[in-house]
Amino acid sequence: MTTSNPTAEHKPDFDDNDDIWGSSSSENDEPYKQQTKNTSNLYSQEDYYGSQSHPTDSPTIQALRRQHSKQGYLAGLSSHKEESLQLGFDEGYPMGAKLGLDIGKILGQLSALSSMNVSLNSGDNDHLKEKIKELLEEVKRECGIKKVLNSKYFDEKLNLKETDTHPVVQKWSKELELILEEVKSIKQKI
Amino acid sequence: MDFDDVLNLEEQFYQDGFAYGQAQSALTSFKEGKEYGLQTAFQKYLLVGQIQGLFDILELTHIELSTQAANNIKQIKEFLTQITYDNDYGNVINTEKIITKIRNKMRVLVNLIPELDKKSCNLSNMDELSRFIGGLEGENGNGNGKNSGTTGTGIGALTDDGMW
């Protein structure tokens, strides 16, 4: 059971009437050929397993292969879909939670600082208040879900590339750290 | 070739196709599910992060708190430690309940800290910011009730702008 049911969102993008196995025969069968490079074309690629027959197969056998392999293929596609969606969802969820938490913290700290008039508005601290507000606006622009979950930060398996901390989080955490240091020093003076 | 041989062949072809279809579906569906899990959790935990961020600043700035405010913060911090980050059904239900409790405490808390500008630092604004960052309302989000809910974006809902 899950927070939501991802399977409800999608239907396979294929048509039962399409001859997804193609009709050509060639030199050999390649069962379970991996086609991971472009999974979005899963249902439209021509080079399916089953599209190729042994050259020695009679036309009757070839037709039999096409017919039953296709039926099996379609059944296989739908049989595993729900379980795989769920597995993927479960794996992505903690990653998304951590990212949401990290970005939320940055926003929360900046929002709180920009809301604290009394603590920071004494003397020449107006420039800091201004800086905080500008940074908050910048973070709002740069840390939206579309930018944080952009594919350029993730590998083919949707794990973060090279590092455990998201580059966007790293960048803005550093910027925020400078502000916090300034706030600390002001608080020590007051 | 007799009748049994033909049946065996049909079964063999069917099983071959089935296994191949299953393998292909597993790859694509897993990725789709992971995208959706990332999105959903990202949107959900933004608020939790914001509250933690607020507490970080309260500690950093050493604001003097009333007893009531201090107790409130203590309770919320305790709740925050009980939040889990996985998709186990029981944990998800429990976390939802905890977040509801935190939200109720937060409504009171912001009124107990005079140093915070209540117009800008309140639960409503935090929610609005979460919706904005989470892509659940328009770019010029104005909190006018357009929120479509924490799981409102389906798989691939944000793909037009390059995500995934």
Task: List its traits.
heterodimer; A: 190 residues; mainly alpha; 55% helix; B: 164 residues; 4 helices; 65% helix; 0% strand; disordered C terminus
Kindly describe this structure.
The complex is a heterodimer of chains A (190) and B (164). Chain A has 190 residues and is mainly α. Helix content of chain A is 55%, strand content 0%. Chain A has 5 helices and no strands. In chain A, helix 1 (59-115) runs antiparallel to helix 3 (126-142), helix 1 packs parallel to helix 5 and helix 3 (126-142) packs antiparallel against helix 5. Chain A is rod-shaped, with a radius of gyration of 27 Å. In chain A, 35% of the residues are buried. The model of chain A is unreliable at 7-47 (pLDDT under 50). Helix content of chain B is 65%, strand content 0%. Chain B has helices at residues 3-60, 67-82, 89-109, 123-133. The model of chain B is unreliable at 139-162 (pLDDT under 50). In chain B, helix 1 packs across helix 4 (123-133) and helix 2 (67-82) runs antiparallel to helix 3. Chain B has a domain at 45-136. Chain B is mainly alpha-helical. At the A-B interface, helix 1, helix 2, helix 4 and helix 5 of A face helix 1 and helix 4 of B.
